[in-house]
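Quick start: read one record
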Amino acid sequence: NGQAEAVGDEFPAPGPAKHRAAGSQFLIHRDFPDGRKLTEFDLAEGKLTVSDSKTIRFTYLSAGLHLCAIAALPDGTLRGGAMHPMRYFIFDIAQNRVTGSGDAVYQWNVAEPEGETLWIGGYGHGALLAWDTAKPYTPPLRKARLDANPVHFGLGGTTVHRPSSIAHLPGGRYAVMAGTPGYHLTGGGLIVLDRTNSKLTSLPRGTFGDFSVQSLQALSPTTVLCGGTVNPGTSGRPAAGTPPLWVVDVEEQRVLRQAAPLPLKRHYFEFLQRADGLVLAAADDNLLCLIDPADLRVTAQKPLGEFTPFAWHQGPRILLAAPDGRIFCLTRNTVLEVLPDLTLRPVAHSKRPITAGGAIAGGRIWFGSTSRLLSCPLPPAVTPF
């Protein structure tokens, strides 16, 4: 009730100074009073080792690791990453169980399948990786290595530090990765891989002003549609104004066209090109729109309304194309079918919040809720009147 109460002015004398773990997010006390040191403490493997080579094995209950990305591969598996610690997983759909997991080294923000290859955008430092899933997996190093699996093509550094999207351009020569820049920085660029020589180049920071690129959609063998975001690198200053759209020529490494057709507050969250050539965009946290990539014009838009917001993740996979061409959208609690006129058809409700998407495989729509892998049946097509 706004009244102060005196509690006295005598306090216990301070004890002897103690070492404090500080200076890093990996805070840990490694020194024991008897002089021994903790050399390993592995929660994933349940192993603790001290300097006298004594190893203790332990088990414990946990809610599990948070899923980051989920992708469907032709061999009937779902593969992706989880975080803290960084792990990958293999889930066999027919067996309905996890059949493999291990050290992912990076946080797999993006998992984009291309045939039997799973392309990975890893946080931090923007690692671009390619995993041939038909061959044995070896944990990637923290530097480029072309003879490993996954292949490690290199790092985006401060240009793309936290990946959000990977696009493969038609013709197979170029792959492009987008995301936000390094910590404390505003304005990002793009990472471009020439697959003929495995060389990484970049459209540097500042190419898009104070904005970064959140979403990508391949348009031609050398051009890509880019959707902007105001988000900076972690702890950076957000960009002011409306995030634009750009068409970029990755071969000439320049912006061909730019427009800001919608008064968005945050970003173009994700793109998916339809069979008619129009690009479906999830924008901000509550808007679906159709973009004509020829002139960057918005031809239709549809608010999510009661279904707001989209299922947020650093590397979103919330717009999903079924084998028959139908498109589905993941929101925080609902799976929606997006009809051609942008009418929204609810097909499933999740009691758990949807936090990571997503893939369609085995006749089901798959997504994550924190550490849980969930799915619902792919619904039958709507019969027209």
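The radius of gyration is 23 Å.
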